[in-house]
Amino acid sequence: xxxxxxxxxxxxxxxxxxxxxxxxxxxxxxxxxxxxxxxxxxxxxxxxxxxxxxxxxxxxxxxxxxxxxxxxxxxxxxxxxxxxxxxxxxxxxxxxxxxxxxxxxxxxxxxxxxxxxxxxxxxxxxxxxxxxxxxxxxxxxxxxxxxxxxxxxxxxxxxxxxxxxxxxxxxxxxxxxxxxxxxxxxxxxxxxxxxxxxxxxxxxxxxxxxxxxxxxxxxxxxxxxxxxxxxxxxxxxxxxxxxxxxxxxxxxxxxxxxxxxxxxxxxxxxxxxxxxxxxxxxxxxxxxxxxxxxxx
Length: 296
Ligand code: NDP
Hints:
Number of helices: 10
CATH topology of the largest domain: Rossmann fold
Strand order of the largest sheet: 1-11-8-7-5-6
Bound molecules: NADPH dihydro-nicotinamide-adenine-dinucleotide phosphate
Mean pLDDT: 97
Structural class: alpha/beta
Low-confidence stretches: none
């Protein structure tokens, strides 16, 4: 039997519409307008598209958005000055510096300069540390946080389940594992994290009730690696060359056509985890605004 398809597009749409309503209430009841600043250094075309999409999504939700575009040769000190300005700006509750940054800028230094309360990407070491100690009032990285929302909203609460995460990056794999492990809603799973040095990976992934692939290799998870009935979440976004006019198509880390015949539920690529990332960025911005507002 074919798996239930989990549509990230639909879930993200629902979250964004709930946020629009919530933001309207915050404005009406507290005079609070959440604000997001996105900083782009250089002219990388993919980054320009992401930044535009984030600004548009914020506007649609009623979130005030500001885009700061700086030339590729901007000195590190100048970027640090921009971040400090945004830290001090009462209209801005979320700061996102689009990565990757040009080589002459130390990414870690920039991430450290962002006020952790405004770190809507959840990459500041303080937020990373808080999340890994199980804190619940913390800004969590958008992609894994979006995966948790997808699970919860499709009746696949991870509590008591065995979740296997393939990938241990700081952006996806590690925070994914931390969220699944938390003693909190969306957590309480038994978590295994696998990576490129894991021997007999299929034996590990076959034990998963919830299998999350964040590997970066097209169609890597095949049907024989999946337990019948498992929930399969595909974080991967990979370009695969083809003969189309565009010259490529996007594929996930999961061999969708064969795995959907074994899994109980599965996310497609595109239209799966991808749209959730922006929805959770908006959600983090609203959470940040409410916490900063409550702190006075
Ligand atoms: P990284 O390259 O940083 O990490 C990949 C991880 O996969 C590493 O931990 C690596 O192991 C592991 N891995 C690689 N090869 C194997 C293998 N043969 N067997 C087992 N594990 C392996 O990637 P990211 O985490 O940044 O991204 C993962 C995927 O998710 C990418 O396709 C990316 O495009 C996508 N992505 C999608 C997002 C979205 O919004 N949908 C957002 C972010 C990422 P090791 O540590 O040992 O090297």
